[in-house]
Every structure is written in C-alpha cells, then in structure tokens.
Design brief:
about 60 residues
Length: about 60
C-alpha cells in the first residue's frame, strides 16, 4: 500500500493521502499543496495501523 505526504509552500505537512484522486480532491478544495512525496514504507505502516490517511485531512 502506498501513502503520500502533501506539503505546503513552507514545507509543512498538510495532508496524508493514499491515492492521487485524494490529492486532486484536496487541490480542488483549495488546499495549497506545493509538493507530494511518497511515504517511506515504515511511515506508511504507521498510517495503516493507526487509521486511514484521510482522517488526517481535516477538510476531506
């Protein structure tokens, strides 16, 4: 399973997503996504154990 971290202009993480469709939905909602990086395997495991990445996205 692949997860992505989305960052704003300041380099702050603003969202974690699992699909490119989720990333595009956030962009359409006006989230200032400047950069998207694939999470390392060990980071993605933590996401899948704790909750879905979309729960991190407050507006989604």
């Amino acid at each position: 399973m692949t997860f992505y971290s989305c960052f704003d202009e300041s380099g702050e993480i603003i969202a974690r997503c699992q699909t490119s469709q989720e990333i595009e939905a956030l962009r359409r909602m006006g989230r200032p996504i400047r950069e998207v990086r694939e999470m390392k395997r060990e980071e993605a495991v933590v996401c899948s154990l704790t909750s879905s990445p979309s729960e991190f996205n407050e507006d989604y």
